[in-house]
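Note to self: keep these together.
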Amino acid sequence: IMHGHALARVRDNALYNKALKQVDNALLVLGRTEQRIVSAQEYLESLKQEANTSIEAIDVNLAKKLMSFLQRLTVKEMEIPLGTSHGDLQSGNIWVETNENIIIYDWETVKERTVWFDPMVLYGRLHSGCFTVDIFDVLKEENRVFVNDKRGGNYTEFEMKTIEMIIGIEDLVF
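Structure:
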């Protein structure tokens, strides 16, 4: 039996912020594990294939429509940092023990994604509801999204739009 509760249920601000600092440290380790750089176009192509496979399993007609849209997408050529990603790092998957240590669980969606994805899920509340999050606004306002990015969020507006699109497609194939 684990004593404590999910971060989503923590009401004490000091404890919540202390737990988030521990999560920040975990993100540093996770996002920098075997990090590699790929071109934006290369990563977009792999996401398109993954989206097609995922959606085709649910609805063939929807997959055809979506792929028609995705095939027309192009991105600014830039480097995309990829690393190990939890995939569903939201506050319900972070356990705060009574001794105030954290445990991150629910690892069935772990795989390689952009280093921005997990912080976006946690701090930008990406999984809080379909199309309710303005990814671009979160990217501009939440510095912790770039915790594992060597550029630290120092991107042009056009590059930020590319990052926004890639995170949106990553979430779609989540």
